[in-house]
Every structure is written in C-alpha cells, then in structure tokens.
Amino acid sequence: MRTGLSAIIALAFVQGTALAQMRAPTASEAACEEPTLRCATKATPAFGPDGTLWLVWMAGGQVSVASSQDAGRSFSAPTHVTTRRLNLDWGPDARPKIVVDRKGGIALAFSTFRDEAFNGEVFYTRSADGGKSFAEPKPITGNNESQRFEALALDQDGTVFAAWLDKRNRVAAKEAGRKYEGAALFFASSRDGGATYAEAALAREGTCECCRLGLAFAAPGRPVAIFRNIFEGGARDHAVMTFTDVATPGEVRRISNDDWQINACPHHGPSLTVAPNGTYHVVWYTNGKTRKGLFYAHSRDEGRSFSTPMALGQPGRNPTRPFVLSGPAGTVMVWKEFDGEKTSVQMTLSRDDGETWSPPKTIASTSDTSDHPLLISNGKQTYLSWMTKADGYRLTAIEDQP
Amino acid sequence: MRFRFAGFAGLVALIASAAALAASPALKPFERGTWQSVLRGHAGRPVLVHFWGVTCGPCKVELPLLGQFAKDHPDVDVVTVSADLVPNLPAATQSMLDKAGLSSTENFIFNDGFVERLRFEIDPAWQGDIPRTMLISREGTVTTIEGSAEMADLEKWSAQQNSKH
C-alpha cells in the first residue's frame, strides 16, 4: 500500500511539474487545496446569539466550520462537516449555507454534483454541541433528480426554512413529450432547528435553473424568496414570493420587466432583505432589452409593487454580485467592480428606507479572484464578509457614515 | 485508514484530471493575453468564437449544431472556449467537443482562476453568462450573440461574409 501510494505521489509530482510548466500558477480559483479557510473559494458567515461569528466554507472538496470571538481576526480550530473529499457544487452562485439559532444550534446546507451531468444534491446537517460536531449530512429530499442553489432562513421561533431549485418534474414532462424549461422552486421547513425537514413541496414551476436564491422572513411564519423566474416569452426576470406560512406558497410577483429573453445560464442571482418595518429591498442583475446591469428596488406592500429600478455601479467597470442587508445603521448594498487589474467592493448606504443612497465608496479590493461580497449584521454593526484568493478571509465593519 | 483512503482518492482524481489535460493537446489553455492572440491569429478571416461550458444546459443542446455548422462552413474559422469557472474539467470538455464533432476546431479552456480579468479582456460588459457567440468579420467587426445562437442567423452571417469577399 505504502509503496503504491508513494508511486502515485511521485507520479502526481511529475504530472504536477508538467502542469506547472504548462499552466500559469494562477490556474485555480483556490489559493491552495487543503480544507483550511485559507484555501476556501466560498465562505458564508452567520452571527450566533452571543455575538460569536460562525463561518462555513468549502475548500479542498470539504465543508468546514469555525468560529471567531474577535470579529474574524482569528478562528477556532475548524470542525470538518464532511469526512471525505466530495464533488461539491462549484458553480459561481453555489456556496454552503449556515444559520445559528437562539440556543446556539447550527444548521447547515450545501450541495454536491451527484453525477457527470452536473445534477445536484442538497445535503443538510446540524450541530447541537456548539459546532464541536455535526450529524452525518443527509439529503434534504429523497428525490434523486437534481437539486441546487439551496437557501436557508431562520424564523423567530427557531423554524428553519429551506428553499432550492429542483428539476424533478422534468422527468414527467419528458415522458409526456413536453418541453421542460428551467427548474422549479421547492421548499421544506424544519421545526427542530434543522435536525429533520418536512417533505419537500413545490412552490413554483418554471424558474431559471442556475442562479442563487435570496431568502428572508417578511414576518414571523412568513418566508419570502426572490428568484430569477421564467416569464412568458422566456424572459428570465426576477420575482418574489411571500409564503402564507412555512407550508403554503404565495403568488409570484414580478419585480421589474427587464425583458431578458435568454436561453442561457446567467450564473448571477439576486439578493433580498426585509427591513424591520416590512419593506422589501432587492438587488439583481439583468441584461434585458429594457435595462442592463445591476439594479435596486424596494416594495412597501409585500412585493405587490416595486419602486422604479435604480442602476448600481459604473457600467464600464463590470458591476457584479450585488448584496443587500438592512442593519442597525440603515440599509446597505455592496457589489463588485473590476478596473482591468483589481476587483473592488463598492458600498452604498440608505438611512431613509431606500429612498436615497450615499455615493458609492470602495471599502475593499483585491488583485486576484474573489468570492461574492456578503453582508452580515450582529444587531449593532453591519460587516462585509469577503473571501479572497490573494488576501484570505476578511470581515470589514461598514463605517457608520453620514 | 479512512483518511488515507480519502487522500488516495483525491490523488487519483488529481492524476486523472492532469492526465486528461495532458492527453488533450488540442485543448489549449486560455489565459491572460490569449484573446488578443486569437484575434491576431485569425485577422482577415471570418471567425466564430463560441463560449460555452460543460455545466451549462443550453450549451449541451447548441454544441452539436455548432459542430454541424463548422463542418458545413470550412471558410469560417470556428474557435471554442470553455468558459466555466476553474476548476475546469478538461476530460469532460474534450468529450463533449468530440461528441459534437468539434474535435478539429481550435478549442480553448479557461485556465486562469481570475476569471473576471479573462472576461474583461474579451468584453468588459460580459458577466460570464454562457452560451455566448462572437462573430468577427474579415474587417474585425464583432457581433455578439448572447444565449443560444439561432443557426439561421449564423448561416446568414456566414453568407454575408462570403458575399463581401
């Protein structure tokens, strides 16, 4: 065994040398191939009830979790959620998800590619001992078609709500000779903090299949999801759905008529936050006939109507990956821009519930590839959470500026 | 032992991936500066550059149609670029190209982890959505088709290139 392994290592080394000569050292998105945070390509944060920062990341084909007591400067020894190298979904909009409940229970979800056709499988797991150990990850649904782009949200009463894009209905469509476009929005909820989930149910057929979802609670017991829908004529424009309760989907409400008729994978999903007063703030990317780029809008009537879309970012600098969060200082938006050499994170803040916004400001930058910029709040302060290849993980306080 | 086995499986996967790239000399790495060299290399000829990826559903449908187009139009230089994010999958990429009848075209695969920079060099407005086709005339005029291309449109463009010649 040992001899065999050595031979393989030697072969890998030779191959590696050959590759190094052929490839630039920058060929990977990851800084390294270990399961450590430094090697992560995607990292997702959550604050615990005691102010502890929790981080889940994917690196080296594994999902790991660690916590920080000093706002991201140092982290605890990581707990490996997975015990072997997996074919984790490495799509641009995929990432592991985390919510931490009031009792400190940690619920996770992540997806893998289950076959060579890139059909996905969503797994969930939970830690009941403060992140020291996690239960064996289990599929969130018994269906074995394809699930990807899961999202988790936590209700006030500790209910964990999960939503994802699911392609199970393409089988019946195919058998009936019908064309099946996109995917479907499915959901399930957990009353035990993410230890078990109810049977998966359909919320909406005919969504785009390759963009992340946004998920929040509009009010106790009422989840709201934002997703790229497929409207009539094949327009892949955005919609929100406010659920009546965690078991009952609501109406699909269009956010804007961008008229992006495209049979392609934008790999570029939206973001949603609900302010304490109930206002929905949404950001999205489109390349439609009506408008192109990143846009923001808000709704004060649960998505029945939205404000006129407001463009974000400098068009010549490829604004991407918008994220929005209502926090203690107001509503914050971040997105990435690229100037030909460096990627920067731009930030703007609204103190009047989205009516007016501060001039965009660069709050971070990096000279190599990076994860999407995310926002997180502990109730006192809003932070930018950003994983970068060159500079590692960063948690940056959003300045409380006038 | 379990850990060792996991490491072993990882190595096998690494070697399989490395071997696949080594065994596919036709699949060229697309890196910083490659775009300009493609433009220079085909200057004065009609070129169709197709950006696609193995994880993209609509791409799987379009690729064989493009293979037929390339076969029917030897006068057009067809170039494909697998623009999925790295880690890219050379073996799967080559296999799909072979099945689509695109083994003998000039085929690239993204080989720089900083994809924003690669895309910016090609088109600063491109956010990475695939499929995407760029039609470059003899004079260098670029027409971009976002999403799946209609073969009729490609035929029309090709005919225009010949009529001008």
UniProtKB/TrEMBL annotation, chain B:
Gene3D superfamilies: Glutaredoxin. One of its GO terms (molecular function) is isomerase activity. The keyword Transferase does not apply. CDD domains: TlpA_like_family (cd02966). PROSITE patterns: THIOREDOXIN_1, THIOREDOXIN_2. Keywords: Isomerase, Redox-active center, Signal. This is Thiol-disulfide isomerase.
